[in-house]
Amino acid sequence: GAMLLGVGIPIMLRVVVGVLLGMGFVVVSKSFLEEYEDLKLADIGGMEATKMVLIVGVMTLHSFAEGLGIGVSFCGNKGAHLGM
């Protein structure tokens, strides 16, 4: 399992914390972006453009976290052999 400062972290705690952090990010981002109702991206404006920015932000963070997980797996024992 995962360790933080030498202490084991139960998987359910990791899941709950991850879900809460994700929900918090979406809520805070949405409230921040709602201040920019006049946002315009290409031919899309208003709340539709705000939704696009929120989706791109969420997917960027998701890809970053996924990349970290893959990078960490290559650092372990025999990690270089994972890439074939």
- What share of residues is helical? 55-70%
**What is the count of DSSP helices, taking H or I runs of 4+ residues?**
2
Strand order of the largest sheet: 1-2
Strand content: 5-15%
Largest sheet: 2 strands, antiparallel
Q: Total number of β-strand segments?
A: 4
Shape: elongated
The run of helices and strands is EEHEEH
Oligomer: single chain
Radius of gyration: 18 Å
Span of the ends, CA to CA = 25 Å
Structural class: mainly alpha
Relevant terms:
2 helices, mainly alpha, 84 residues, two-stranded antiparallel ribbon
Describe it for me?
It is built from 2 helices and 4 strands. It is mainly alpha-helical and 84 residues long. The strands form 2 sheets. A two-stranded antiparallel ribbon has the order 1-2. It has a two-stranded antiparallel ribbon with strand order 3-4. The two termini are 25 Å apart. The mean pLDDT is 79.
What would you say about this model in short?
By secondary structure, the chain is mainly alpha-helical.
Write the layout of secondary structure elements.
Elements: E1 2-4, E2 7-9, H1 11-33, E3 40-41, E4 44-45, H2 47-75
Antiparallel strand pairs: 1-2, 3-4
